[in-house]
């Protein structure tokens, strides 16, 4: 009987760290997903509209026109010629390339028309205009 009591109260020589590692891996993957899921781009003041649409698709390219007339492809500043070249390359890789146009409410209309002409000249059919939902 003394041997049984000694066996039950025996101290552990090592610590099982597998559950701790599982938790660490889950947290690591969670943080990796959350940081890469953030949308990169340039902040602009979007015009307001009452219509809503879901434009979240994989490989969507964002073209942004700021209030001062600067044009950005995703988060990188480009000229109209560079925009046409870059979007042409993306269109060659993905024939159904979706493009989202984000224009500042105070942006020059001429710049937005130039961007739309580039998109039209490349035969990009899936074009979305980003707006802010108007307050009721």
Task: Characterise this structure.
The longest helix has 19 residues, at 18-36. The protein has a 5-stranded mixed sheet with strand order 4-3-2-5-6, covered by helices on one side. Strands 1-7 form a two-stranded parallel sheet. It has helices spanning 2-8, 18-36, 80-93, 109-121, and strands spanning 48-49, 61-65, 71-73, 76-78, 98-103, 126-129, 132-133. With 136 residues, it is of the alpha/beta class. The chain has 4 helices and 7 strands, in the order ααββββαβαββ. The mean pLDDT is 78.
Hey, roughly how much beta strand do the residues contain? 15-25%
Q: Rounded to an integer, what's the Rg over CA atoms?
A: 26 Å
Low-confidence stretches: none
Nearest-integer average pLDDT: 78
Instruction: Please give the largest β-sheet.
Output: 5 strands, mixed
Chain-wise SSE layout:
Elements: H1 2-8, H2 18-36, E1 48-49, E2 61-65, E3 71-73, E4 76-78, H3 80-93, E5 98-103, H4 109-121, E6 126-129, E7 132-133
Parallel strand pairs: 1-7, 2-5, 5-6
Antiparallel strand pairs: 2-3, 3-4
Helix pairs in contact: 3-4
Q: Can you tag this structure with a few keywords?
A:
5-stranded mixed beta sheet, alpha/beta, 136 residues, 18% strand, 7 strands
Summarize the structure.
With 136 residues, the chain is of the alpha/beta class. It has helices at residues 2-8, 18-36, 80-93, 109-121; strands at 48-49, 61-65, 71-73, 76-78, 98-103, 126-129, 132-133. It is elongated.
């Amino acid at each position: 009987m003394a041997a049984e009591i000694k066996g039950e109260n025996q101290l552990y020589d090592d610590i099982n760290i597998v559950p701790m590692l599982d938790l660490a891996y889950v947290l690591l993957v969670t943080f990796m997903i959350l940081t890469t899921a953030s949308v990169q781009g340039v902040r602009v003041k979007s015009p307001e509209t009452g219509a809503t649409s879901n434009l979240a698709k994989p490989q969507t390219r964002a073209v942004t026109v700021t209030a001062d007339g600067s044009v950005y492809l995703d988060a990188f500043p480009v000229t109209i010629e560079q925009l046409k070249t870059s979007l042409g390359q993306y269109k060659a890789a993905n024939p159904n390339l979706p493009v989202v146009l984000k224009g500042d409410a105070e942006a020059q209309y001429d710049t937005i028309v130039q961007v739309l002409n580039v998109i039209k000249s490349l035969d990009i059919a899936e074009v979305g205009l980003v707006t802010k939902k108007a307050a009721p």
